[in-house]
Amino acid sequence: AELRKASKRLTCHKRYKIQKKIREHHRKVRKEAKKRGHKKPKKDPGVPSAAPFKEELLREAEQRKQRLEELKQKQKLNRQKEHEKKRKLEAKKNAAKIKEKAEGKESSGKSKAKTNKLLDKNSKKSFCRELKKVIEASDVVLEVLDARDPMGCRCPQLEQAVTCSGEDKKLVLVLNKIDLVPKENLEKWLNYLKKEFPTVAFKSATLMKDRTMEQVTKRRARVDLSRTTECLGSKCLLKLLQDHGRTQNKAIQVGVVGFPNVGKSSLINSLKGVRACNVGLARGVTKSMQIVHVDKQTKMLDSPSIIADPSNNALALALRSIIDTTEESCSADVLEGVDAILNHCSKQQVMMHYSIPDFRNTEEFLALLAQKRGMLKKGGVPDVENIAKILLCDWTGAKIRYHSQPPGSQRPPPYLTEDKIAKMQECFNLKNLEEENNNTVQALKCPSPASSIIFQSAGMTNGTIEENKVVEEASEWESLETGQEGEEDFTESDDDQDDMEEEEDVREVNQTVSSTLAPALVSLTHDFLFSESEHSTSLSLSLDKTADEDDAYDFNTDYV
């Protein structure tokens, strides 16, 4: 049996109460209208019989009525045309969908080829390919090292490829981020590294302005830019490269290489004085070789990051590999990396730096840090995964000050013989380089040893330069595939362009109709025999009514 609809009948008590409320509301509205001094609009008396030219006035009024009717008919026709166009477009789209289904195999093959091409730009093999291009094209290779862990930023495979290339290539080490380590530690590292390769102390300038960017306003200049925009060591490095170019009697190409987040692109921007390369906290921002002209005799070649070999220890993979912290699948790698970092640091210094009480393990440390910073999930549960990602970004970025000690004894790697060391150091004025480095260290504002965390380096980090040795991880690029498919969906087809053109035509028709209708309505209203004051009173009353409609009685509520 079918269910009956609910009855709309009310009890008499409720019905009378509603009627009473409505009467009170109307009374209230009338009182407010009286207070404002508004009167009811008078009815149109029409054209009096004694008025001169009565027939002409009536004839004009009829003509205006006819014009309005014609305009309404035109609007109807335009609407019908719009509906027909829409139907045609829908029919075209349906036909296109049917064709796509019929030719699904071919289209899927083409789309896969497109995604593969786009994936190839972001893949590790592409990074290795571009890096090899930079090494082959450059006369001088600058290996950028993080001054906090210089040994961990050195790649033996890269150094061997440059020194054993057989060509007259030079390798220069650049100690970047020197403002994050104590002066004594920096001097020790400079003395250690200069025995193997020419070493330049450098501090990149951050917050570089782009050529298209406007100047920072006074209100936005609250940030202390004295520390961030200052660049040290750029003159020393430029002079070193220019002197080498003069000895070669040609314009030289300088390749800038290194692991992620050591400051390769920032170094080029500092030498150029303008933001020529993209810079970011995310790892792997630079994905292809980029040429920047510093002067007439020097070209800088920006390169993608060196790919860390999976055989490295957990610490090296945490600090030097390209980990996409936005992916959910990498949370285990991030937690493992944070655990490795904490195991290689002084526990008391970490507690002092983060102002956190004693902790038993990494999970407890992350939970305490998340509670302190207010990063909580539902129910007050600490957000351990996100705080681990932030901590990892802080350690690879320029936020945390830590330093590692150089090895006690000088043991050059097996590929670096005395002859090769002498070959790398020739054509450079090492005395001037040492003096410039000393001037840079003296002009630098370094942190005190007490405020810097002592860090135990894990040694050199192995990297993969050969494209054939790279092993791609399928899970790492799944998110990129979905992103590229989404981008393909947003590309405009021919049907979408037809839609846009037809919508523009419809807008033009509506504008023409409104432009012809407006003067006709204005002339019709002005020819009536109402005064301006009466017309204004009627308009104001109608506006008052719409304003008071918000206070109208709600029939759905029960006022018992």
Notes on the protein architecture:
The structure is a single chain. The protein is an alpha/beta fold. It has a domain at 124-208 and 226-309 and 408-446: Rossmann fold (3-Layer(aba) Sandwich), CATH 3.40.50. It is built from 20 helices and 10 strands. It has a 6-stranded mixed β-sheet with strand order 3-2-1-4-6-5, sandwiched between helices. Helix 2 packs antiparallel against helix 19 (494-526), helix 12 (331-343) packs across helix 15 (384-396) and helix 14 packs across helix 15 (384-396). 24% of the residues are buried. The model is unreliable at 209-228, 473-503, 512-553 and 555-560 (pLDDT under 50).
